[in-house]
Each structure stands twice: as C-alpha cells, then as structure tokens.
Amino acid sequence: MFYFTVSNPNDPISTEIIETNRRDLAFWQRLRPDDDEDLATSVNKICTRTGLSRKLIAACLFSICFLPHLPHFHKLVEKLGHLDMARINAITRAGAKIPTEKRELFDAYLVDYLTPQAEAQCLPQASSISAMMRKFIARHCPDDETSSVTAEESMRYRRNRKGGISITVDCTASEGTEVKAALEQMSKDKDCTPGTSLLHIIRGLPTKVVLNTYGSPDGPEYLEGGTWLSKKQTDFWKTRVTSERDMDAAQFAYTTAYQPTKEMRIYVKGLRTTCSVPGCCVNADNCQLDHIIPWDEGGPTTPWNLHPLCIFHHIQKTEGRLQCYPLPDGTVLFLIDGLPVISVPNGPLSQSNKTWGTKFGKYMDRKIAA
What we know:
Blueprint: E1 3-4, H1 12-31, H2 39-50, H3 54-66, H4 71-80, H5 85-95, H6 103-113, E2 119-121, H7 126-140, E3 155-159, E4 165-169, H8 173-190, H9 194-202, E5 213-216, E6 219-223, E7 227-228, H10 231-237, H11 247-250, H12 262-271, E8 288-291, E9 306-309, H13 311-318, E10 323-326, E11 332-336, E12 339-343, H14 360-369
Parallel strand pairs: 1-2
Antiparallel strand pairs: 3-4, 5-6, 6-7, 8-9, 10-11, 11-12
Helix pairs in contact: 3-5, 4-6, 5-7, 8-9
C-alpha cells in the first residue's frame, strides 16, 4: 500500500498527527460563520478566544469556504488527513487565482500530486507544493501571471545606516534569475562585491552568463533556479537557446573521477529542486552533490548515485548520523530514527514533471501503475 510517512498507520506519531490534522479541519468547519454574519465581528470573536492572528483566522475560514470548490481534493484531504492547515491555506490561496473554468483541472492536478506514489513517501513540503502550483499557473493560466510587476512600483531606494543606498528591484522570477546569475558571474570574474558587479555591468563591462533551461528546444519549460515558465516566457527563452544537451544520455553517464561532469551536474540539478533529505527546503543550487554510496566505499560517479545535500545534512551523512541508499527507480531511501522514508525527485527531469519527449503509451502505463 502506498502512503506518505505522515500517514503510516503503524506509527503512533504519524497516527497522532493525522488525528490532529482532522481535528483542526473539523475545528475550523465548526467555526465557519453564517453567511449573513458580520465578517469583522466573527474574526474578532475567534481572535479573542484563540489568541490567533486575524490573518491566520481569515485564511483558515477562507479555506473552509473554498474547499468545496475543489471536491476531489477536499475528499482526499478528509480521507488521508495528511495535510495541516498551513498547507491547505497555501493551496486554497493559490486556487483562488485559478479561473473558474480551470478549477476542475486544478482539482485533478492537486489530487495527482498529493496522492502518494510510493510506500513510505515523504510528504512534499509547503515550498514544493507552492512550486507545483506556480507550475500549474504558468502552464494553464498564462494570462494570469501573478509575477508581473508594475513600472511605478518596480524600484525603490533607501539610505542605510552606513551612509550607502540600498536598491530594491522587483521583477519576474525569470528576470530575477538572469539578474542574479549575471551579478554572481561578474563578481566571480572581477572578484568584487555584488554592488560593484552591478556598476561594472552598467558601465558596459562584458560578462558571460550561462543559464540552463529544461525541456525541448522549441518548448523550454523550466529555468534553472526554480522557475516554471509560462507560455509568454517560453516563447522568449526558446529564442535564447544556443546549445543543447541530451539529458537522456546524461542520465547514464559515468566517469572514473570523483567530481561529476558538467552534464551530470545539470542532470542531477534537474531531478531535484531542493536538498533530497525529507523535509529540507534548501535550494539545490545551494547544495553539494553527494555520492549516496560513498566514493571511498566504491560508490561510482554517475547520476543514480548522486543527489544534492545541503551542508548541514552532508555533514550529518559524513558523520554517519544520516543513512541513505539509492533505489532503481531514481528515488532515495533514507533511514531516519530507524524508519524508512522515500525521497521522490520533484524537479523538471523527474518522472512526475517531465512531459517533453514522452510517448503517450509509456506515460499512461506509468500513471496507471502509480
């Protein structure tokens, strides 16, 4: 039977958290005001009795009202009891931005993503769930891009205590990724601070920025750094593709050296968006590539034996306080407090997210088997 670790029927802590989630959901359902009640008075009444913030109260009450508009997801939540109110609130907040005609599709998308696909699978963190919802909005609601920025409010200056000036620039996620990469590359080229790097770029000093997109040449879907591309962004980035790499070939690449090749690094970063330890949200760009089976114990340098680990968890693994093993399907088995936990890849090259170059029959066989 497939289940998330939080739904493990044989673990007393998991059983208790499921009961807590269901009790919390029932609690907010009971507190739902009547339709003709005054909103502010209702929130104040709950705030006085619970000590919770008005913002949290409003979010929870909205979730209770919005869940019936996602009937299949609502049924899944009540059946499994695996989601806390924080995750539910994040989902309903995003769901409110989905056009009415797309909610049925969004409902099915949520059920597919939040139904376990393996035994003892780790429940996705709130950040992963948010990324999944951004992907849906980028793919299916291109006219509803929430990342757009108005020119009037896109830049702010503030004098800091040291006499300098702090500059805040708002831009889309893909634009931010490009700006960040350019500043980091210039800092590396000239061995200078990000502020000086910005001046160098403004003054016309050249720097070469390489950004990886995942998808096909005619349809990039994901930009390195954590951005699922909308239709408009896809049309822009496909004009900037200067070279191609075969990620199917990179999947089986091998080197006798300790350090992985550039293609291996790109492939492994495409499999996972965060540190692979269950519950860790450190971005894969800020992680080290670790040999799951240690190099000094005969572990090969090849993608199936590599995964991103943040510095904290890398130290834990090196010290023997964290154990993990590669599995044939590309997932990683962790042993945490003696309990097995499956870490499933969630990046653009993972089975659940890769849609380009996929044959219909194989795709449907995979979905049916899951």
